[in-house]
Structure formats: C-alpha cells, structure tokens
TrEMBL record:
Residues 100-117 have a biased composition (Basic and acidic residues). SMART domains: RING. GO terms for molecular function: promoter-specific chromatin binding; zinc ion binding. It comes from Candidula unifasciata. This is RING-type domain-containing protein. Residues 18-57 form the RING-type domain. One of its GO terms (biological process) is negative regulation of transcription by RNA polymerase II.
C-alpha cells in the first residue's frame, strides 16, 4: 500500500531553507548556543566578518566562533528526503569542483573527528526570560503519560504522575532534554530516575529538537503533536 504523505513544500520551506543564501540547507550546520541552522559554507563565511548569529544576534565565541558549530545530520537528511535530487546534484557539483582544482574526490566527507557537542543552551522552560526564543515559531504539544507506572526507588514506591496541564506551547527549537528537565521539575521526579520521551513509538534522544521531531514524525498530522513520557526500566527498578 502506498503510504506516501503529500507534503506542501511551501509549508515546510521555512524549516529547511538557509536564511543566508535562501537555498535549501547544504551541510546543515547549527550554532550550538542558539540552535539556528545555516548551510555550513554560508555560516562559516558569515562568521569570518561578524561574531553574531545572523538570525538572533546572539554573540558567538569571540575568538573561535567555529567552535560553536556542529553539523546537523538529521535536518540535512530531512532536506535530502524532501528535495529529490538535491543530494545527487550537490555530489556532482562537489566532484566537478574538486576535479577542477585537481583534487581527489573525497567520497567520505566528515571523516575528520567531530566533537560531539552538547548544546549549552539553558532551557527556555526553566528560564522565564528565555529571550532568545521569544520570536521563534511555536509548536503546540500534548505531553501525555504513557501509562500509570510505579517503580521501586530506594525502597519506596514511586508513582509516575500525570501533568496537571498536559498541553503546552513552546519554541520549535526546544530540545527533548528541555522537556525532560520540565517533567522532572513538575512531576517531582528524583534526579536519579531515568525517563523516556516517545513520539510515534520512537524513543527520542535528548538532543533532538521539536522542529526535528515535527518534521520527522508529525508532519501532515493534526496538532498538537503528542509526546509520551514514561519511567525507563533499568536493572535496579522494576516497573509495574
Ligand atoms: Zn546557505
Ligand atoms: Zn541564533
């Protein structure tokens, strides 16, 4: 059965277009401090003359601005998936470029060791003056308890509560780690307990943003986007 989802490209464009060149992301690269994304070559060139994020004016590292860039593979994959032939065309362009300079074709770009950088971004949810996010596109979420759970925690029964208010609006740049921080706080979960956030039966890793989840798992579906949370089962707790 054909399960192709028809996607209106106009709707998705704002998420996958570089604000510096107006084209689809090529080598999507994110500033770790504010999570704005650009083409790698666009942002590297830009930061040579200016030390602020082009989108939010956040000051990036004074002496080594490139330290704060990391490749955004997920977003790039989305672009390649959505825009057929972009990848092939880009590969061809690179080959031509390398040939014209007499360089060997590098079939595996990015083999250089990349530092896995954790965004230092402080959570908008815990931070009421998260001014960096104020003008962001917002997304409506429903944070639903996966199921009532009880675990043994230091000899006591710990019950997973449901949120009083499960609907929330947040910036599309909020990460799963931010949501988890909010859940820990609102549900008074001890910090040594692990929780999982799930969308569409997929467990989400901490560094994934709402934008990525939306584009990967929720595009074309009805809002709010539903995320589930639950205690993670570990060897020293038994979930019932
Ligand atoms: Zn660009
Ligand atoms: Zn920014």
């Amino acid at each position: 059965m054909d399960e192709t989802i028809k996607i209106c490209i106009q709707e998705i464009n704002p998420h996958v277009v570089c604000s510096l060149c107006g084209g689809y992301f090529i080598d999507a690269t994110t500033i770790t401090e504010c999570l704005h994304t650009f083409c790698k070559s666009c942002i590297v060139k830009y930061l040579m003359s200016c030390k602020h994020c082009p989108q939010c004016q956040l000051k990036v590292h004074e002496t080594h601005p490139l330290f704060l860039l990391r490749p955004d593979r997920t977003l790039q994959d989305i672009v390649y998936k959505l825009i057929p032939n972009l990848f092939e065309n880009e590969e061809l362009r690179r080959e031509e470029f390398n040939k014209s300079r007499g360089m060997a074709v590098d079939k595996k770009p990015g083999t250089k060791k990349e530092e896995p950088t954790v965004p230092k971004l402080s959570s908008i949810i815990n931070n009421p003056d998260g001014h960096l996010y104020r003008n962001d596109e917002q997304i409506c979420l429903c944070l639903e308890r996966y199921r009532p759970q009880r675990i043994m925690h230091h000899g006591k029964v710990l019950t997973l509560r449901a949120l009083d208010r499960k609907f929330l609006r947040c910036s599309i740049r909020v990460l799963v780690s931010h949501l988890k921080a909010m859940l820990f706080k609102k549900l008074a979960i001890p910090s040594d307990v692990q929780i999982e956030v799930i969308c569409d039966r997929e467990m989400l890793s901490d560094e994934v943003s709402m934008k990525q989840i939306f584009l990967m798992n929720w595009f074309g579906k009805e809002t709010p986007m539903v995320l589930y949370y639950r205690f993670r089962e570990t060897s020293d707790n038994s979930v019932t």
